[in-house]
């Protein structure tokens, strides 16, 4: 028995030694896999940066929008006072003031719609970022051999 075991062990060693191209191929495949992983990580970082820049642009637009809405609100309050006769309207007639007031209301509604659109885009970016993180986490989990995972790891992978 012992001789047979020794023989089988030495024959498998001889097979590995006689096929150096196999280890070379394995090394090459490993290098290729690492290169692919590195490229994937770079692409993920680029996508994250794009989303970050887009989110920053949206934030700036929301701030500008808020300032514009504040200005319109101040102007609207003053216009309403003039319409009620609480403030000096000067040379403006009531029709002109009503026209300005309706224009103001239309502009405010337009800004509110735009704000809603920006918030939807921001939420979309947030969801894309969350999806990207989940995909990365899943890739990391799937890279581990199933035989090394316990039930908790498998459940977590399924949940992701």
Automatic annotation (TrEMBL):
UniProt-annotated stretches for the region Disordered: 1-33
Domain of life: Eukaryota
Biased composition range(s): Polar residues: 1-11
Domain BMERB span(s) in chain numbering: 45-160
Composition bias type Basic residues, residue spans: 22-33
Protein name, per record: MICLK protein
